TrEMBL record, chain A:
NCBIfam families: recf. This is DNA replication and repair protein RecF. One of its GO terms (biological process) is DNA replication. The RecF protein is involved in DNA metabolism; it is required for DNA replication and normal SOS inducibility. RecF binds preferentially to single-stranded, linear DNA. It also seems to bind ATP. One of its GO terms (molecular function) is ATP binding. It comes from Acrocarpospora corrugata. Keywords: ATP-binding, Cytoplasm, DNA damage, DNA repair, DNA replication, DNA-binding, Nucleotide-binding, SOS response. Coiled coil: none annotated.
TrEMBL record, chain B:
Residues 79-174 form the Toprim domain. This is Recombination protein RecR. Keywords: DNA damage, DNA recombination, DNA repair, Metal-binding, Zinc, Zinc-finger. It comes from Acrocarpospora corrugata. One of its GO terms (biological process) is DNA recombination. InterPro entries: DNA_Rcmb_RecR (IPR000093), Rcmb_RecR (IPR023627), Rcmb_RecR_Znf (IPR015967), TOPRIM_dom (IPR006171), TOPRIM_RecR (IPR034137). May play a role in DNA repair. It seems to be involved in an RecBC-independent recombinational process of DNA repair. It may act with RecF and RecO.
């Protein structure tokens, strides 16, 4: 697939910009701080409904503007889809596909698939487990958009359960309480405390149900990724030790029922500390994807160059998986070549060159490897011009 | 902060569901600028609804008398109770004409984030209604979202020892939504295809 057109309104530094794009390689070149990454970040957002740089949407809206709009025309096998996303920080985003509103923005996921390489990727190897969980979950959603729902449900159960653990007392006057309850509020106010356990059991069962679904999908994903990551890493760093991927969790099993049973048992065991600390201590939100090089964990041991190769190998493996599912995803390389030595640069360029569409950002033309010469746009002070 | 009475109005409006501080302020200033007759009509409507409309002492549905129209209707099957979150869900289900039993309105769903636990809902009243064994089926028609599901699970577990038939509306309802937004045909079908809930 490829992006044929991108149009931004009040996204990041752009009051408005229109870009016609072709398949093949396109490079956005210009000095730092001119708005190159802002362009590809917008496309990453269309694919994942999140930025690869910031955790919230507020910084994506141009300073002083109420909302941002990203419009993109996606072409896949001669079929075109116009995706329009309206970002309303603090409120629900809105989406339209081919001019028809969809009921929830997440129903517009899956139409554009991207694999984005960025300097931030180093955190996949060196950063917290949350980075690696996001890597897995984003990939799950890209492959099967319904996982956006599974993930959202799981997060919501977690929030509810944590709220319950924190309050300990259920009967707190809340805004949602119907007005007619006010009269017998006094009589009810203290009745809740004893109920924590029985309500907790209900949230346990829902946590376990959604958690096992997420967990089992992640375990399958890691099995599929393992050989692909090893292959990509060996190509990038032929002389280095072999890499390993291991999913670490309180629950490891083969079937979803298995996993659910194990999660439930682990919850029972953690009950006391959970009630003391007021947070959920068991479940896929606590898991990690452990990366190792030879015998040693990559985090803390791998050199800068090895860490980069590992991060790139994870992204390349994601690319391979998505491509095998059908439909070449759009490759985005945000300022990565400047971070790599000559050998890694060339190998990476060779591996991504055959993709249907490759979008690159670079500070100077020399940062774009010879294998990836194509269309060039100059980006200066927010104006984007084709050279 | 505004002069006492204006701030007072803003505070009161802000307590309404779905009304944040900004909207409360906007409504308050709209009312200040409005024609006095218009404001009187609104005030009257507010008082009248509190005076004339009450909640059925059996099922919790809105009622013009002590008991609601449905609870007073002898043709409605007393063996089946359909549990819903709000009175507006009763209206949605009545439109389908699929259901001939009685209702029980909980007044919301379990949601710890909003400080709503089982004791804030009309669950005790439901247990009282089930106590004499006359009811044989309980249909759990809480919203098809997470909080609705959790409430259904809670109730199913609670009544399990009573040995009655506990069912949940069939899937096909838009997941994550409100019951009241489902169209009549979908809701009707969900009723017909309701499944036994096993907890
Ligand atoms: N929400 C925003 N409103 C206005 N300007 C922004 C916003 N977010 C980022 N910018 C500006 O965008 C520029 C950075 O753009 P970026 O695409 O990251 O640069 P680069 O060309 O180096 O990739 C900075 O000048 C920054 O001030
Ligand atoms: Mg940049
Ligand atoms: Zn009634």
């Amino acid at each position: 697939m490829h992006v044929a057109h991108l149009s931004l309104t009040d996204f990041r530094s752009y009051p408005g910009v229109e870009l016609a794009l072709d398949p093949g390689v396109t490079a956005f070149v210009g000095p730092n701080g001119q708005g190159k990454t802002n362009l590809v970040e917008a496309l990453g957002y269309v694919a994942t409904h999140a930025s690869h740089r910031v955790a919230t949407d507020a910084p994506l809206v141009r300073h002083g503007a109420p909302r941002a709009v990203i419009r993109s025309m996606i072409v896949k096998d001669d079929r075109r889809a116009l995706i329009e996303l309206e970002l309303n920080p603090g409120k629900a985003n809105r989406a339209r596909v081919n001019r028809s509103p969809v009921s929830r923005a997440r129903d517009a996921l899956g139409l554009l698939r991207t694999v984005l390489f960025a300097p931030e990727d180093l955190a996949l190897v060196k950063g917290d487990p949350a980075e690696r969980r996001r890597f897995m979950d984003d990939l799950l959603v890209a492959r099967h958009p319904r996982f956006a729902g599974v993930r959202a449900d799981y997060d919501r159960v977690l929030k509810q359960r944590n709220a319950l653990l924190r309050t300990g007392v259920l009967a707190r006057p809340g805004k949602r309480r119907s007005a007619r309850r006010a009269e017998d509020e006094a009589g009810f106010a203290e009745a809740g405390a004893g109920d924590v356990q029985s309500t907790l059991a209900v949230w346990d069962s829902h946590l376990v149900r959604h958690g096992a679904e997420l967990l089992s999908a992640r375990l399958d994903l890691v099995d599929e990724l393992r050989p692909l990551v090893a292959k990509a890493y060996a190509t990038l760093a032929p002389s280095s030790d072999a890499v390993q991927l291991e999913y670490s969790s309180t629950a490891l099993g083969t079937t979803r029922e298995d996993l659910a049973d194990q999660l439930l048992a682990a919850l029972a065991e953690a009950r006391k500390s959970e009630l003391e600390r007021g947070i959920t201590l068991v479940g896929p939100h606590r898991d990690d994807l452990q990366l190792s090089l030879g015998e040693l964990p990559a985090r803390g041991y791998a050199s800068h160059g090895e860490s980069w190769s590992f991060a790139l190998a994870l992204r390349l493996a994601a690319y391979d998986l998505l491509r095998a599912d059908g439909g070449d995803p759009v490759l985005i390389l945000d300022d990565v070549f400047a971070e790599l030595d000559t050998q890694r640069r060339r190998r990476l360029a060779e591996m991504v060159a055959p993709a249907e569409q490759v979008l690159i950002t670079a500070a100077v033309p020399a940062d774009v490897p010879g294998e990836l010469i194509g269309v060039r746009f100059d980006v200066t002070e927010g104006s984007v011009t084709r050279v | 902060m505004y002069e006492g009475v204006v701030q007072n109005l803003i505070d009161e409006l802000g307590l309404l569901p779905g009304v944040g501080p900004k909207s409360a302020q906007r409504i308050a200033f709209h009312l200040l600028a409005a024609d006095p007759a218009e404001v009187k009509r609104l005030a009257h409507a507010l008082l009248e609804v509190k005076e004339k409309v009450r909640f059925c002492r059996v099922c919790g549905n809105v009622a013009a008398e002590q008991d609601c129209r449905i609870c007073r209707d002898p043709r409605r099957d007393p063996q089946v109770i359909c549990v819903v979150e709000e009175s507006k869900d009763v209206i949605a289900i009545e439109k389908t004409r699929e259901f001939r039993g009685r209702y029980h309105v909980l007044g919301g769903a379990i949601s710890p984030i909003d400080g709503v636990g089982p004791d804030d809902l009309r669950i005790r009243e439901l247990m009282t209604r089930l106590a004499d064994g006359a009811v044989t089926e309980l249909i759990l028609a809480t919203d098809p979202n997470l909080e609705g599901e959790a409430t259904a699970t809670y109730l199913a577990r609670l009544v399990k020892p009573m040995g009655l038939r506990v069912t949940r509306l069939a899937s096909g309802l838009p997941v994550g939504g409100d019951l009241e937004y489902a169209d009549e045909v979908t809701l009707g079908r969900a009723f017909e295809g309701r499944r036994l809930l096993d907890v």
